[in-house]
Amino acid sequence: ERAARAAAGSGARAADAGAAALPSGLRLELIDPGEPPAPPEPGRAALRALPGHPAPTAGGGAPGAKPTVVGSPGPTVVGSPGRPSWGSSGPSVKPSSPPTPSAPSAKPTTPRPSASVPVTTTPPPSALDTDTDTDADAEAATAGAARYRAPRPGIVTRAGWGADEKIRETGHVYSKTVKVAFIHHTVTGNNYSCSQAPSVLRSIYRYHVKSLGWRDYGYNFTIDKCGKIYEGRSGGVTKAVRGAHTLGFNTNSMGIAVLGTFTSKKPSAKAVKAVAKLTAWKLGLFKRNPRGTTHLVSGGGNKYKKGTSVKLHVIAGHRDGFATECPGKRLYKKLGSVRKTAARLQGR
User: Fold this and answer.
1) With helix as H, strand as E and coil as C, how does the chain read?
2) Structural domain spans, the chain
3) Were 262 and a residue from 140, 151, 294, 330 both cysteine, which residue would form a disulfide, CB within 3.0 to 4.6 Å?
């Protein structure tokens, strides 16, 4: 301050000394520039607005609010209240109240499969058939084949008829597809009551496993005189489980047995209708026409040599693939009506 006044006095004397040299009417005046600006406080940096954050106000913002500090010095640019303010990195809008930080977005994850949805190992339809088919496969290949599906009938599970799961072999054997449904009779008595049917199934089951040495119950399904359908060999009623019912043709087929003997006695109408319902549904899963024909290759038996390609009805009798009277003359005669009813149930 003293230096400034001294400089001012020196300038005044110089002005007086040179006043005579100035033209008449002119006067030289020196203005005191005032005090120099104070240097910035050490360690304090300039404040800048960041994108997405409010710019600090000239007075430091609301009481208690902490301004955003940016390491590189620079001027603070503040917009008018309610208008966007711009910092060095881009626009920033000053809100009327401090913003509430939002929770970070959850990282998307791959949805886990539902536990209620079963896992299937069935190959795609294009990989199901390796044998040569005729009209059944030709029709299945058409665009409308998938619509020929029948409703699933009621099926009593193995647990429902009391199958002892400890006596069968573990694991299951599957075919690639189901091309033929072979119809059988069990050659047991016809005088059982419907409530006795489960006990008849249990006796057949023990005979197949304990006496014949088979891995499980031979037939894929069994039907009683009241039209009730029972799950036979384990492995899944919708799958192509390979059974033991028609020697030489157990692969790519299923076996359905009607309880009783039908050499001279007619099967009940309820049983015949149940055969139609079951074949319509199960064959529909594999795009088979119940009124069609197909070919199976013999694995060796008493009627066809191994390797022989045999033309069969899609719904056939046991006797069509093996030298036997099964399923009995009276039941065998019903197969024509079974095919017709099954096709109708499929919507054909």
Assistant:
1) CHHHHHHHHHHHHHHHHCHHHCCCCCCCCCCCCCCCCCCCCCCCCCECCCCCCCCCCCCCCCCCCCCCECCCCCCCCCCCCCCEEEECCEEEECCCCCCCCCCCCCCCCCCCCCCCCCCCCCCCHHHCCCCCCCHHHHHHCCCCHHHCCCCCCCEECHHHHCCCCCCCCCCCCECCCCCEEEEEECCCCCCCCHHHHHHHHHHHHHHHHHHCCCCCCCCCEEECCCCCEEECCCCCCCCCECCCCCCCCCCCEEEEEECCCCCCCCCCHHHHHHHHHHHHHHHHHCCCCCCCEEEEECCCCCCCCCCCEEEEECEEEHHHCCCCCCCCHHHHCCHHHHHHHHHHHCCC
2) 126-345
3) 330
Instruction: For residues 264 and 11, give the distance between their C-alpha atoms in angstroms, rounded to a whole number.
Output: 145
Pick the CATH number of 126-345 from 3.40.605.10, 3.40.80.10, 3.30.420.40, 3.40.50.720: 3.40.80.10
pLDDT, tens digit, 9 for 90 and up, residues 299-340: 999 999 999 999 999 999 999 999 999 999 999 999 999 999
Looking up tokens 């013999």 gives: 298
pLDDT (tens digit per residue) in 176-208: 999 999 999 999 999 999 999 999 999 999 999
Q: What is the pLDDT of residues 36-62, one digit of tens each?
A: 555 544 444 333 433 344 443 344 443
List beta partners, residue 91: 86
Q: pLDDT tens digits for 2-38?
A: 444 444 444 444 444 444 555 666 555 555 555 555 5
User: pTM for the complete prediction?
Assistant: 0.60
Is residue 232 within 8 A of residue 221, CB to CB? The reply is: yes
